[in-house]
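for the writeup, i need someone to sanity check this before i put it in the appendix. the sequnce is what the collaborator sent (i think, or maybe the updated version? ugh). structure was predicted straight from it, no edits. if anything looks off just tell me and ill rerun, i have time this weekend
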Amino acid sequence: MSGSVVTRWLSLWSVETSCRTGPATRRRAGPSSLVRVWISHPDRAREEREDPRGSSFGVRRGGVWWRYDPDNGAMSNEDQPDTGSGIGQEFGWLLDPAALIGALDFGEIGAEECAGRPTVRVRALARAPAEGRDDAALWRLGAMGADELHLDVDAERGMLLRREARFEGRPFAVSEILEVAFDEQFLEDTFIFTPPPGEEVRSVAERFPVRRNLTIEQAVALAPFIVWIPARLPAYWETEIGFAAEQDRPLSAAHVFLHYSTPGGTHDLRITESPADGPGDLEAEGPGGPWRAIDRNKRPMQIRERAESWHAAQARLDLDGTRILIHSGDIAAGALADLAAGLVRAPSVPPDLGA
């Protein structure tokens, strides 16, 4: 099924989104973005976005995509077809929400209307987690953290036209389709990518080129900041080291990546380091719990534990001009803080094995 939709999103972040085949009215209630989406099944999509960072757009035809945004410029996966883009996928699942059925229990069915179309409105509750169940559908639906949902489903097409997430009886996030059109015939150039004048299409591999399988001495030689490593870890743990150079587009500081793991993969931790005064922030906030300030070994830092909606414990600190983020999915935040307290400067020359 092909179609276009105009979607309005309201949430704690006051985000408004629209997607359609033509101009859309933009209602400002705070920071906002506007998204127009064309979806032609089975494998073509186009997105155009406007937000405070500027205008961006992307086209997907089969497994190949092209995208432009002001931060990254124009890029494509033509030489890396296994690299996905997400173009059209953020809204495409609304056209066929069948994957949600198994994740929810339903009740209180009634007749309503949305976007000028008759709908079936249901009250839905997320089912208790089952072993091995993939909760991606619940994430898409915005059900994480909600104790109930109110959903409007198009009575003819089965498309999800409205969703309202509630906690203790009060809505905290709402999205609804404002306009929708089905079975449209799109012009062929709808799915042709033309970059802005002066923009050269780059490979997606150039976005964050990382040098991998380095020794710690090589990483130290490349990094324009002090590199820190754990004072001790079990001898059988494996180590992977990578380095990404500073970039102008997207604006990004140099980074060193340290990945420590057990041979069987039962435990692992990752350390990311960059200049403390560099552009950007190492840590993506995510939906985890609050940060807590502590002091270990006279080193001030912040930690937060794993949460139901964020499955990694984290510790972060600045140390002699280096910003450090440590996170692990199976090691507690307190243990990460102990590790951070014992970080030492990485060696710049290999050990003398003849000594």
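The chain has a mean pLDDT of 81. The domain at 208-345 is CATH 3.40.1000 (Protein Transport Mog1p; Chain A).
thx in advance!!
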